[in-house]
């Protein structure tokens, strides 16, 4: 039996416009929750690519990550199943592009919301995780790191990569 700990790697977008943050409201195992546009990193993509994809899928807005906001880890137990879950989150900020009006949102996403920091603080009990507000607070503090802080080896793209490049 393999007991190796395997946290779920996720990516999240912190998108601010005119003092409001683009958030999603989604159905979860714990009920209706508020979250940053976020999701799991897919095989073969860099964290920044995954963040751009998730933002589009969950909000219908194009987003281009330009800076790393931080790397976060959290752990909780699902109230419905007792499952022990750990998330390792790469959060990004960047440039908001065009909205694809009429685009269907990901399964489980009820709607998008533009929320002020005060509204987010007041609804903390409805957040998907404590990382939601932490990412917003870090953004407001001005914390930023260059995208180059995350190195993605070409091997993530799958078979055929040059092994000498990854040495």
Give a structural overview.
Helix content is 18%, strand content 41%. The protein has three helices and nine strands, in the order βββββαβββααβ. The radius of gyration is 16 Å and the shape is globular. The protein has a single domain (8-96, 103-149), classed as Nucleoside Triphosphate Pyrophosphohydrolase, CATH 3.90.79.10. By secondary structure, it is α+β, with helices and mostly antiparallel strands. The longest helix is centred in the first third of the chain and has 13 residues, at 47-59. The model has no long low-confidence stretch (mean pLDDT 92). The strands form two sheets. The chain has a five-stranded mixed β-sheet, with helices on both faces. Strands 2, 3, 4 and 8 form a four-stranded antiparallel β-sheet that branches.
Summarize this, please?
This protein has 167 residues and is an alpha+beta fold.
Write the layout of secondary structure elements.
Elements: E1 8-14, E2 16-17, E3 20-28, E4 31-35, E5 38-40, H1 47-59, E6 61-77, E7 84-99, E8 109-115, H2 117-122, H3 130-140, E9 145-146
Parallel strand pairs: 1-7
Antiparallel strand pairs: 1-5, 2-3, 3-4, 3-8, 6-7, 6-9
């Amino acid at each position: 039996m393999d007991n190796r700990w395997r946290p779920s790697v996720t990516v999240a977008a912190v998108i601010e416009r005119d003092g409001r943050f683009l958030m999603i409201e989604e159905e979860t195992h714990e009920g209706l929750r508020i979250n940053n546009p976020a999701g799991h990193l897919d095989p073969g993509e860099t964290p920044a690519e995954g963040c751009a994809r998730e933002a589009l899928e969950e909000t219908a807005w194009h987003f281009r990550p330009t800076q790393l906001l931080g790397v976060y880890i959290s752990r909780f137990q699902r109230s419905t199943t007792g499952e022990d879950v750990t998330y390792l989150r790469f959060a990004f900020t960047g440039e908001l592009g065009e909205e694809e009006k009429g685009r269907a949102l990901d399964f489980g996403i009820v709607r998008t919301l533009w929320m002020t920091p005060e509204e987010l603080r007041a609804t903390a009990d409805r957040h998907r995780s404590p990382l939601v507000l932490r990412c917003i607070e870090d953004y407001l503090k001005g914390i930023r790191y260059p995208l180059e802080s995350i190195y993605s080896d070409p091997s993530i793209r799958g078979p055929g990569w040059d092994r000498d490049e990854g040495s």
